[in-house]
Amino acid sequence: MRVTVTGAAGFIGAHLCRALVPHAEVVGLDDLSTGSREHLAGTGVRLIEASLADRDAVTEAVAGADAVVHLAARASVPASVADPAGAWQTNAEGTMTVLEAVRGAGGGSASASQAGPHLVYASSSAVYGDPPSQPVHEELPVAAGSPYAAGKLAGEQAALAHQTVFGLPVLALRFFNVYGPLQPADHAYAAAVPAFIARALAGQTLAIHGDGLQTRDFVDVGTVAAILTDAVRRRVTHPSPVNLASGAPRTLLEVVDALERLLGHPVARQHTDPRAGDVRHSTADITRLRALFPAVAAQDFDAGLAATVAWFRNRIATNV
Predict the structure, then answer these.
(1) What domains lie within the chain, and their CATH numbers?
(2) What's the pTM value of the predicted model, to 2 decimals?
(3) pLDDT one-digit tens code per residue, 40-89
(4) What positions carry a catalytic annotation?
(5) 233-238: Cβ within 8 A, 24+ apart
(6) Which helix (H) or strand (E) covers residue 271, if one does?
C-alpha cells in the first residue's frame, strides 16, 4: 500500500507518517514553511520538498498512491486575516491542485479504486463560524467567518464535489483544536496549548486573548493520527463532512488551570484583546465520528497535556 501525505513534515503530518509507516510506503509533500525534515528523521518517508502551487511536484507525489491524506494548509485564522490572498491560494487553490492530481492518478496501484486514490481531506471546525448553539453537528449551516475558514470550506466542498461528480472516494474531516508534541509555539500565530506551555516553562506571562471563557474542543494529535490511519487502511468514505474532535470542551482558563496543576505552581496571566476572526465557542457533536471509527477513542485531555509538556521539557533540555 502506498500513501501520500501533504504537509507531511508538519505537526499533524509527522505524527501521521509515523503511524502509517508500519502499514504502508509513505510519500510526503511539504514546502517546509512550517514543518521540518527532522520531524521525519528515521521514518523512511520519501519527502518531496515543494508547495501546493507546484503542480508537477503534486502530480509526482500522488502518482501510484492508493490513498492521499491532504493536510497541507496555512492553518491559522489570524494569519489568514493578515494575508487573505495567500491563505486562499494555499487552502482553496492548493486543494484543487491536489484533487485534480488525485483524479488524474486514476487507479493508483492495482488495489485502488479506478476513480482515483482514496482521499482524506483535512477541513476545519472554523467553517461553522460562531453558531448560536452547541455542540455543532455536521448538518448545521456553515458560516465561514475568516479567510482561513472560507478557504477550508472551499476545499471541503471541492473534495465532496469530486466524490459526487467523478466518483472519487473521499472522507472530509472537520478538525477541531488539535494539540500535542511537535506543535510549534515560536511564531505570532501559535495555537493556545503550545503557546501556553512554552511561556509557562520559560517563566513568562501567558497572553490570554479576551476573557479566557471561550471554549474549544481539544483533541490530541495521537488520536487524530490513529483516526487518519484507520481511515486510510479501511478506505473510509462519507458523503458529508465528519467532525474530528473529542466532544469534551474546555475554556482557555481551564487549560491554564490544568497546566498549573501539572507544573505544580501558578503562572502569570495577562488578558489581551480578542483576536479578529476567532469564534466564541466550539464544541463538536461526534456521533458520526464514533459510528465511523468505533475502535478509536480520544485520549484524556490531562494525559495528553502531560505528554505535551514532557515533550516541551525535553526539547528545552536538549536545546532543540
Answers:
(1) 2-178+219-244 (3.40.50.720), 181-216+248-317 (3.90.25.10)
(2) 0.94
(3) 999 999 999 999 999 999 999 999 999 999 999 998 888 899 999 999 99
(4) 148
(5) 233/1, 233/23, 235/67, 235/113, 235/118, 235/169, 236/171, 236/292, 236/293, 237/118, 237/163, 237/169, 237/170, 237/171, 238/170, 238/171, 238/172, 238/288, 238/292
(6) strand 269-272
